[in-house]
Amino acid sequence: MREMAKINTGLLVCVSIVFLPVVFGICLCFGTIFINPIDLLNGSSGMGVIVELRSQRLLAGFIVGGTLAVSGTAYQAVLRNPLAEPFILGISGGAGLGAAISIALGLTTISFLFLPFVSFISAILILSMVLLMARGVGSEYSNNIMLSGVVAGTLCSSMLMFIISVLDNHKLNSVTWWMLGNLEQGNLALLVSAGTAAVAGTAVLFFYGREVNTLTLGDEVAFYLGINSKMLLLLVLGIASLLTAAAVSISGIIGFVGLVVPHILRRMFGADHRRLFPLSLLYGGMFLMVCDTFARTVMSPREIPVGVITSLIGGPFFIWLLNRRVARIGSGEDRV
Amino acid sequence: MISVDNIVCRYPGSAREVVSGISFRVDGGEFVSLIGPNGAGKTTVFRILGGYLSPSSGSVKIKDRNIFEMHGKQRSALLGVVPQNIFTPLPYTVRQIVEMGRVSRLPRFGVQSRQDRRAVSDAMMEMNVEQYSGTLFSNLSGGEKQRVMLAMALAQEPEILLLDEPTAHLDIGHVSKLMEILCRLNGKRKLTIILITHDINLSARYSSRMILMKDGRIMKDGSTESVLDPELIGAIYGCNVRKCRIDGGGEYVAIL
After folding, report:
1. Could you tell me if A250 and A183 are in contact, meaning their C-beta atoms sit under 8 angstroms apart?
2. H-run or E-run covering B69
3. What pTM value is reported for the model?
4. CA B233, CA B252: separation in Å to the nearest integer?
5. Which residue in B87, B108, B169 is closest to A207 by CB distance?
6. Contact yes or no for A224 and B89 at CB 8 A
7. Nearest C-alpha of chain B: how many angstroms from A193?
8. Domain encompassing residue B184
């Protein structure tokens, strides 16, 4: 694994980009109806509509998975907590609450952009609340952030329940359908907007990758190394929250992608964020495409919400990481 | 080289002055220790000297330039800073950590230049950590980590080194090795060193000048002999001490 950390970043990203159409093609074949890959390549499958629907769904999966993985990578770096990710920090819940509010108020009928916009504002508010609630220094602060995130997530969930309880039948149907967390996104314009945000956000984070590396030593150390650490911290948190909001706008709340993918990538390719951000976008996207394919195939013709699959993988993974972290802190590692 | 002029510092929402009207000057090539009991305001002064914390009033100048108006790149080229208790939760290798010392000098999209690679290698060699190059930082011992952090500061190729309690939690063997390295850097490289410590005897043994602080004020600033006054030290620390001489030169204080 350590040898893979020495591979040139550009080469690594290029090879990963080559994987993308392969994974996309494989996922395209599976579903309630199996499409023969050879027919698919020849264009003679006779299932144009299914291919089109699946392609759009896979595109949604790629964008959502990629953005969630990139935002998880960013949160873990700047909050200096390997357990941080949008779902656990309550940011996804915040964005979800914003999305539910915009549906409930009928804002989405005015413009589809209200959904991601209100989600983003709500995500930023929840992030600010989490950061204000967490106090302390070092690992104490890091742990407090997680606890604050759980509190914020629960609060968002309660408010969401309240909104549901007062909605009329038509809006209740819209919110519930969206809350289930699925990738059947019919709004292409929303997909394109979220995809643009994903690529642009990842590019900016990549641009600041070296500086983000120093932030993992703490904002004070980064400052002494010549970085405008407070501005960078705000920028990274802002972009991570924007990406989370973009993902939630498409699919509802899908947990643990931002936890699992960055950890696996760091173990394989090291912790340099100039490579982690683009790789997170690519592999996070592929991860969710595969999870979604599994979700719509395993109990075919029934479909499992993709969030169930990611939680089944992510939950045990979180416990494993937590135990590992407790063992490391207990043994005095990660301390000078 | 560094001039600190009448700095006063209060934390937001508090009227209490953590630092009250401190002024001193450090010339190029000096090895100065800032000492004092717990709560004396040493770490606050450290953060102000590093430019991280702005004082309520007063100024800090390095080479006649206000540190708070300097660009980060200029500041990091002059001043290498090693604060207390540095850790990273992510798996960086020792070389990656030392390379972070060059971060403000690297082009946005370019790779490291030959000079950058040389500065990193020289710093690692100076601190004797090149054998850990590919080892994860989190797998090192406390003393090794401290040397890596010093290497990171040295990779900046600074003219001044500012260190906050670099020997805290180290055993006497590691303390001795670290202090010998600092002396060598001060003597050979003519690096100006400002060491924040609560260990009076350590600073008396290695530095040429001591600044004694209590309650945010400077109580004495002078040579180690003049600061190691048993009456003064006893009054500052609230205990009875006696000055002892070491065979072959040097002095230390012992608690009675």
Report:
1. yes
2. none
3. 0.88
4. 11
5. B108
6. no
7. 27
8. 2-88+157-255
CA distance A69 to B26: 49
Pair A32, A301: CB distance under 8 Å: yes
Cα A182 off chain centre by: 14
Cβ contact A333–B72 (<8 Å): no
Summarize pLDDT for B104-145 with one digit per residue, the tens: 888 877 788 899 999 999 999 988 899 999 999 988 988 889
Residue A81 has pLDDT above 60, yes or no: yes
> What is the residue extent of each domain of chain A?
2-330
| Whole-number Cα distances in Å, A330 to A324, A325, A336, B170 | 10, 8, 14, 18
Q: What backbone phi and psi angles, to 5 degrees, belong to A156? A: -60, -40
Element (H, E) at A106: none
First to last CA, chain B: 39
pLDDT above 90: residue A43: no
CA angle (A75, A79, A81) in 5-degree steps: 90
Give the per-residue pLDDT at B219.
93
Say whether A336 and B87 touch across the interface (CB within 8 A): yes
B45 contact partners, CB below 8 Å, separation of at least 6: B4, B7, B19, B22, B34, B196, B213
**Do A261 and A69 form a contact (C-beta atoms < 8 A)?**
yes
Q: Is residue B167 part of a domain?
A: yes
Class of domain A2-330: mainly alpha
pLDDT, residue A136, reads 63
Q: Which helix H or strand E contains B55, and what residues bound it? A: none
User: Chain A contact for B167, CB < 8 A?
Assistant: no
Residues of B in contact with A2 (CB under 8 A): 134
Question: Which residues share a beta bridge with A194?
Answer: none
Instruction: Report the CATH number at residue B220.
Output: 3.40.50.300
Alpha-helical runs (H) found in A79-137: 91-104, 107-110, 114-133
**Beta carbons within 8 Å of B228's beta carbon, 6+ residues apart:** B200, B204, B210, B243, B251, B252, B253
Element (H, E) at B8: strand B2-10
Q: Is A280 exposed, middle or buried (0-12, 13-18, 19+ CB in 10 A)?
A: buried
Distance CA B241, CA B1 (A): 34
Q: Is residue B76 part of a domain?
A: yes
Could you tell me if residue B113 is inside a domain? no
Number of domains in chain B: 1
Measured CA to CA, the distance from residue A9 to residue A4 in angstroms comes to 10
Query: Which chain A residues are Cβ-neighbours of B120 within 8 angstroms?
Result: none
**Residues of chain B contacting residue A334, judged by C-beta atoms under 8 Å apart:** 87-89, 138
**Rounded average pLDDT over B58-63:** 93
The verdict on residue B196 lying in a domain is yes
